[in-house]
Fold Argininosuccinate synthase.
Amino acid sequence: MADSSVKKVVLAYSGGLDTSIILKWLQTTYRCEVVTFTADLGQGEELGPARDKALLLGIKPENIFIEDLREEFVRDFVFPMFRANALYEGVYLLGTSIARPLIAKRLIEIAEKVGADAVSHGATGKGNDQVRFELTAYALKPDIAVIAPWREWDLRSREQLIAFAEQHQIPIAKNKRGEAPFSVDANLLHASSEGRVLEDPNEEVPDYVFSRTISPEEAPDKPTVITIGFEKGDAVSIDGQKLSPATLLAKLNDLGRDNGIGRLDLVENRFVGMKSRGMYETPGGTILHVAHRAIESITLDRGAAHLKDEIMPKYAELIYNGFWYSPEREMLQALIDKSQEFVAGEVRLKLYKGGVHVIGRSSPYSLYDQDLVTFEEGAVAYDHRDAAGFIKLNALRLRTLGQRKKKLGL
């Protein structure tokens, strides 16, 4: 049942068929004024048609918001996450997950700007995105109303959606009349594909699904060597050229694409309880992840590095589940950011047929001491004889346990 108290709603609007249907459904069901917000996160699509479509559906020009958020996305969301080396379930670089809190944040900011009392999104009732959008919205504006059409309407099939669009004279592209072979979400960090042809986890992903990478088999036979510069844990340059966050990630995407880097076929555990199979392409992010761990390997103390690795799964899970604006994520971020004060220097990488290989790393803050690790004798502050006492102290409890087992005949 529509809430008659809703007078104005801000819709996360892509300009595609589904969100255009949602736009019209909001107008006809809630009888409210609709404001559209379209975010450019580097998805690679022209956003002008979204404005034209919104105008066609009766949205006032002053109620159409189209914003380029690429730099904010990488600087304030992607880079902080990469400082943590975050991987969900050990492999997923969280490309979809990290985009949702930014979109929802801007939805709330626009709602406050235009005096809206509700926001709306096109996430389905089976997925994670509904959780991510709404947890962010409620964290930033506790009294906001959230309208999730896929949980409310009775449009349960593609045929019903098309019939609704035809009834309300919503333009339908020829390739949108049938069921899409798979769904795609894309931004500057990654592209994800899931559904339909990808639902059987035992079937290989068809070649036509890939949009961000060439196959490793088709990648050049000659490796590409690059150098990434870091300051305080963030990548700042490629081959000595300083670049803005979004420009740098876009450049890494090009390098990754051309070398067949960043494909991931994953069956993941969704927050809502089911398993889902998807294909993720994260070319630039895969390179950045390897490079960041490499620069940390010479600049982070063992205790700090191991603590980061211990908290990383929790940090990644918080992002995946939609808790970017939770106090626990912010607490972990403060710890992670503290660890990055001296994570600076350069990492040399060889990109070759789907692989990212570290071939060198250097830093003015390096903790690597060649005099300490060399096999050659030198004037170093390490006495081999000290190791005997170190081992005996660490072996004390093991020897005590061993003696007990011996007494008991175990």
User: Anything to note?
Assistant: The chain has a mean pLDDT of 94. The CA atoms of residues 181 and 306 lie 43 Å apart. The chain is about 40% helix and 20% strand.
